[in-house]
Each structure stands twice: as C-alpha cells, then as structure tokens.
Amino acid sequence: MLRRLLILFALMWPPAVQAAPPVPVAAAADLRLVLPPLVAAVEARSGARYNVSFGSSGQMVQQALNGAPFQLLLLADSALASKLPAGERRAYALGRLALVVPAGSAIRDLAGLKAAVAAGRLRHLAIANPAHAPYGAAARAVLASAGIKGAPLVLGDNVAQTLAFVTSGAADAGIVALPLARAAGGLLVVPINPALHPPLVQTLVIMPGAGPAARALADAITGPAGQSALLAAGFGRP
C-alpha cells in the first residue's frame, strides 16, 4: 500500500525545475571594474546567470580554440577576435592607455619616463606581456613612439596584474589601461595620447551556438546603458 502511494505521489508531483547553468563569459582584464555592475543588472532583469573569467585576451582566445566553452568573449583587440571561428562580432569600446607612477614620483609624463630610463633611475617599468595582451603590445608601441629605449621591463600576465606591480611598489612606473588606473589610489595617472599606438578596438564575439543569455549581455554592453558606463570608466567610443 505504501509503495503504491509513493508511486502515485511521484506521478502527480511536477518534476523539479533545473536552473540553467551559468553562461561562461571571458572578459579582458581592463573590464574588471566596469563589467560586474552590467552583468548584475542583466541577471536581475532576466534571471540569467553568468560565470565571468577575466584575463588577457590572447590567452582567452587560445583557451576558446582549445575547447573552452565560452559563449561570449569580450576582447581588448579586434585582431584577436578574427582568430575565432565564425561568430557575431561587435566593437564595443576603444581602449585607452595611461602612464601610472606613485604619487610622489619625479616622473610626471612620458618625457620624464624617458629621462629616468636614460639616466638609469628606473628599476622596473611594468607593461602587460605583449605576446598575448593587446595592452602590452600597445604599451610597447607607445615606448617606441616616445623614443624610450632600453627600459627595464617587468611583464604582467594582463593589465590588472601590471597595475598591481606599480601599486605594490614592485615597479616604479607602468603603462596600463586607463579605466583601471583611474580607480587605483595613491597613483599619478597620466592619460596617453592614442595617436602613439595602434587603436585598441575592443571587440566582443558571440560564439556559434551561444544561447539567448549570451546575446542579452552583449546587447547590454553595446546598448546605451553599457556604452555610457564604458565612457564614464574611461574607455573611448569604438
């Protein structure tokens, strides 16, 4: 009798609704501060959930090519986006660079950085690794444009780690993403003229087979609210 009742209840009881798994998203490290509020707003509005990983764009593209199940990639460079298989691509921001030094540093601009390097007064200059970080490649172009040669470089995996080298005192100066630099305390932040490096056309890629939630986040980032947030953080218009 008890067994029959249990079977009857099992037939009558509606199956448990399985929550959709979080949408895997890869994001350039320069978005570490501005992206979480945008993600939270989309989650609150739609009920979707996202698992966002931050890192260097080159490494994330390689992970995607190796099978990482990212549905959306927010890259710091359009050239890297072209390495991914066919998917929808959208420019969402223009990356901006800044020179950062401790507030009490004698270096106040790129000319001062050049003089410090020439005089051997600089222990370390931090930039992201140009091998896989677009901001690192842009920083290297800035050094060449400014005629700064022989700088004692220390390389971060991404711009967030590069900035940490300066804030921790491990480096005397750094060239990093302007939005991250603006939010760091105790530093002099000197925006760098974009003409000194190739444009960083930050591009998102909606991967083939991505679900509606991935597209909803892409729409939020490229929509009016997302664009306003990016501009306020220090990014340029794509």
Describe this structure as you would to a colleague:
- The chain is α/β, with parallel strands linked by helices.
- 39% of the residues lie in helices and 23% in strands.
- The protein contains ten helices and ten strands.
- The protein has a five-stranded mixed sheet.
- Helix 2 packs across helix 9 (212-222) and helix 9 (212-222) packs across helix 10.
- The protein is elongated and about 60 Å long.
- The protein starts with a helix and ends in a 5-residue tail after the last helix.
Order of helices and strands: HEHEHEHEEHEHEHEHEEHH
Helix % is 25-40%
> Mean pLDDT, rounded to whole units?
91
Alpha plus pi helix count: 10
Largest sheet: 5 strands, mixed
Estimate the strand proportion.
15-25%
In CATH terms, the superfamily of the largest domain is: Periplasmic binding protein-like II
Task: List the main descriptive attributes of the protein structure presented here.
D-Maltodextrin-Binding Protein, domain 2, elongated, alpha/beta, 5-stranded mixed beta sheet, 10 strands, 2 domains, disordered N terminus, 238 residues
Helices and strands in order:
Elements: H1 2-12, E1 23-28, H2 35-46, E2 50-55, H3 57-65, E3 72-75, H4 78-81, E4 88-95, E5 97-102, H5 110-118, E6 125-128, H6 134-145, E7 153-156, H7 159-167, E8 173-177, H8 178-183, E9 187-191, E10 200-206, H9 212-222, H10 224-233
Helix pairs in contact: 2-9, 9-10
